[in-house]
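TL;DR need structure tokens for one chain.
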Amino acid sequence: MNTDQLCGLLAEPSRLRTYSAVVLGATTPDQVAGTTGLPNATIGKALQKLIKAGLVTANPALQADEDAFKNAVRDQRPAWTPLDPDPARDAVLKAFIRDGRLTHFPTYPEKLQIVLEHIATSFDQDRDYPEPEVNELLNRWHPDHAALRRTLVDARLLTRTNSIYRRAH
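>> reply
TL;DR here they are.
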């Protein structure tokens, strides 16, 4: 079941309340009624849909599939595309880069170097970049483009001469 189906199934308040009661331990329709205050006919219809969808089982006691949400999200999560072919470097990048953005600066110098080397690949070799263009490029990575620019220069991954930047070799 995907997330759209799951949300659609539980968008009906009576099904949501019925499912919630089963999650909280109701094992019979009478217990569901006692917990939810819903009429037996409404609970019966809700249970039919929940059982048909596989969200609840009834053999013999009612039981909820509590992993349905986790599984639905996992099934629809895009596959991770490595940022670096080296698994150790990729693990570092994965910890600090989300959706193409630097979440925060690593505090360990070795990890910072890996992240900076990755960001430096945004710049073409043998091309000069005026400072406004560098700022625009780095702002895509992190809102503090000035700190990122200084850090790349300090790490000798970018060179600067008269406000013109170039990727170091």
